[in-house]
Design goal:
By secondary structure, the chain is an alpha/beta fold. The chain has twelve helices and eight strands.
């Protein structure tokens, strides 16, 4: 079973009609993974592209999500089968690959994520929390069906081939890399620039055409999630520290304001 996949299915519907958003936060092996996994997030995102984290060290941290409502998602550093395999072996239920620019690259990603006959993933025994099965074939089929596959769109080349990319079977979410896309559009970090907004609209429209969920890797500074939800984006990460602090302060405030019994 995969909570995030269930949420993605609800969001997609038959026509990608407006629905709930899949909301996650980024974590690392040293984060309070168990606490965050039980806090209500749909997924926890472990980044191995820009963070100094080795994929093969993620197993214990990912294991802390078991039995919670948060699905572990791993962003690998490159579209390489061995990196994807390491992440899946560690227990990932979603895979993000950066800089997917063509349909061929998207197909290579999908095939690396799936077991035979749908793909080329190497077998290493049952990994992760997927449920109980009567046969090993049933396990592999379930993983193939339940895994959330998320290529990133970050370049002009990908924008020009977006329909071909989204035609590749198996893609669940197309994830915008906000900063890299803005740089590719020659409006670096100008997230309110008309050229950038136009690109977001084009991505959301393409996703609607193909029944794929559009997502944002993060909400750009100074912008609100509602802005992107109104445009059709339905998956993104948010920082959690400020919310946690507010919750603790609220709890402390309620205790400190309590009147003693007389």
């Amino acid at each position: 079973m995969n909570h995030l996949k269930d949420v993605v299915r609800v969001i997609r519907g038959e026509t990608l009609a407006p629905g709930p958003a899949a909301i996650g936060t980024t974590v690392g092996p040293q984060s309070e993974v168990r606490f965050l996994a039980g806090a209500g997030f749909d997924f926890l995102l472990f980044d191995t592209q820009h963070a100094s984290v080795d994929i093969k060290d993620l197993g214990p941290a990912i294991a802390q999500t078991r039995g919670t409502g948060a699905s572990p998602v791993v962003r690998v550093g490159d579209n390489r089968p061995e990196l994807i395999c390491y992440a899946l072996d560690a227990g990932a239920k979603g895979i993000i690959v950066p800089m997917v620019n063509t349909a061929e690259e998207a197909d290579r990603m999908v095939r690396a994520c799936k077991y035979h006959p749908a793909g080329i993933r190497s077998n290493s025994g049952i990994r992760g929390e997927w449920g109980e099965f009567d046969s090993y074939r049933a396990f592999m089929d379930a993983v193939n069906d339940e895994l959330v596959i998320i290529p990133m769109i970050e370049t002009i080349e990908a924008m020009e081939q977006i329909d071909e990319i989204l035609d590749v079977p198996g893609i669940d979410v197309l994830l915008v890399g906000p900063s890299d896309l803005s740089i590719a559009l020659d409006v670096p970090l100008e997230y309110d620039h008309p050229r950038y907004i136009e690109a977001l609209d084009a991505i959301a429209a393409a996703c609607r055409r193909h029944g794929v969920v559009p997502g944002m890797y993060f909400i750009p500074p100074g912008m609100e999630p509602a802005f992107f939800i109104q445009k059709g984006f339905r998956l993104f990460t948010v920082p959690w520290a400020e919310w946690a602090t507010q919750g603790i302060q609220s709890g402390l405030g309620s205790l400190r304001s309590a009147k003693p019994y007389r």
